[in-house]
């Protein structure tokens, strides 16, 4: 009798445990059915020079200030390690939806105006391994015809169409953990007027980038763009070395409330794809490095909810 009583107690005591296990299994199945999207793959819509997969919240506006000093190897007495000169880009971008934004800016390099559209096509989740964002831009050079480029080429325009550059890009990123995010950036751009007869109007490049989160407010980031051009063919035809190099940038992101502050070093002075992918003169090997910063301030235009 005593053994029967103990068996009954053990059986009844196991019922709540089995019920709890069954309930947890049901909840796990329900969670698996729901789509849980990955958030904050990167801190900002820009990585360093280039874009990230991130957009901004609907009815929000980003004001970007990008600044590049002169070359560090330009001398201390003559140029104060580059601090005596600067290139600047001012830009605005506005989110029409949480996944669609439009933007425009103006760079002092070649007095260039640019406009762009960016749409987050696919979002990383428990059902999708990556985020994919489509990005396209138009840039217009407004320099007077006959100016001399940094490469030494004299550019002459016969009409305004020749001043245009069109660029398309896919941004493919994965957030592997709370700390590490990696991104690929296959890129295609077309100059309506090539720099010389030996250069192709349409060029392709592959970008690689990523960031590693050091703390809640500090990250280290890097990006590299490899130009898919036949330099040997150019040099054989033109009888001179190809003037441009691949772009490499390394920096830090600092988040302070409504601001994102990015400090970096790069061999590119340009701040739009036409310039930093297609027209990078400097190399890290020769010490042709430029330090600078990007700063973004976000403003909200969402209507306030009345209590």
Keywords:
twelve-stranded antiparallel barrel, single chain, 14 strands, 307 residues, alpha+beta, 16% helix, 4 helices, two-stranded antiparallel sheet
How does this structure look, described?
The protein is α+β, with helices and mostly antiparallel strands. The protein is 16% helix and 43% strand. The chain has 4 helices and 14 strands. The protein has helices at 2-33, 76-79, 231-238, 273-276; strands at 60-71, 86-95, 100-107, 112-122, 131-141, 147-148, 154-155, 164-175, 180-191, 202-213, 218-227, 247-256, 259-266, 290-300. The strands form 2 sheets. The chain has a 12-stranded antiparallel barrel with strand order 1-2-3-4-5-8-9-10-11-12-13-14. Strands 6-7 form a two-stranded antiparallel ribbon. A hairpin with a 4-residue loop joins strand 3 and strand 4 (112-122). It is globular and about 75 Å long. The mean pLDDT is 90.
Short overview:
The protein is α+β, with helices and mostly antiparallel strands and 307 residues long.
Average pLDDT score: 90
Residue runs with pLDDT of under 50 for 5 or more positions: none
Largest sheet: 12 strands, antiparallel, barrel
Count of beta strands = 14
Order of helices and strands: HEHEEEEEEEEEEHEEHE
Oligomer, anyone? Answer: single chain
Topology:
Elements: H1 2-33, E1 60-71, H2 76-79, E2 86-95, E3 100-107, E4 112-122, E5 131-141, E6 147-148, E7 154-155, E8 164-175, E9 180-191, E10 202-213, E11 218-227, H3 231-238, E12 247-256, E13 259-266, H4 273-276, E14 290-300
Antiparallel strand pairs: 1-2, 1-14, 2-3, 3-4, 4-5, 5-8, 6-7, 8-9, 9-10, 10-11, 11-12, 12-13, 13-14
